[in-house]
Amino acid sequence: MEKRAIDQYRYTIELLLAVLDGFKPEQLNKVPFEGSWTPGQVTDHIMKAQAGTPDLLNRKAEPTNREPGEKEAAIKKMFLDFNIKMKSPDFILPSDKPLDKEQLMDGIKNQSKEILNAMQANDPTEVCTGFEIPGFGPFTRLEWLYFITYHTQRHVWQLERM
Q1: pLDDT one-digit tens code per residue, 50-76
Q2: Distance CA 103, CA 136 (A)
Q3: Which carries the bigger pLDDT value, residue 93 or residue 116?
Q4: What is the DSSP code string of 18-29?
Q5: What domain range is 16 assigned to?
């Protein structure tokens, strides 16, 4: 289960980088349609959403008394239902300033390495108690990896349509 989750995360990050690389500099900071973020803002949002993940995964956690990936299906259903419009929490809203593609790509690469290192250094079955997503309760480290993977997949889908 953990290897599948790690492989899926790696693939998702590679896909994100490939899609992002396909944008010309003048497209990166241009709103593609009314009500949308720019491709740069979508990427900035992904980075902000994942920013605290390495720290969260490296914190002390507790053993679980349930299946460590029990919440995967609910997480996947939430993020990969493209008929639902979601509202981002303020603390992960993207910047309004022009963004640089190389800086975004380097940031994603570095951040994903930190996340993978944290996953490999810690027990994926333990429950992280430092932060909870409302309505879900505490996640195991494995579920956090699913959360950021499916969240990123949702935004890759959006980027592909820009």
Answers
A1: 999 999 999 999 999 999 999 999 999
A2: 33
A3: 116
A4: HHHHTS-HHHHT
A5: 2-160
Segment 74-79 shows an average pLDDT of 94
Give Cα separations from 82 to 65, 79, 160 (angstroms): 32, 7, 13
By C-alpha distance, which of 13, 6, 16 is closest to 157? Answer: 16
Q: How far apart are alpha carbons 67 and 117 in whole angstroms?
A: 23
The CA–CA distances, whole Å, from 161 to 1, 101, 114 equal 31, 18, 29
Count how many domains the chain has. Answer: 1
Contact partners, residue 17, CB within 8 Å, separation at least 6:
105, 108, 109
Residue 1 has pLDDT above 70, yes or no: no
Residue 123 belongs to a domain with what CATH number? 1.20.120.450
Q: Cite the DSSP H helix spans in 2-95.
A: 2-21, 25-28, 39-50, 53-58, 72-79
Amino acid at 25: P
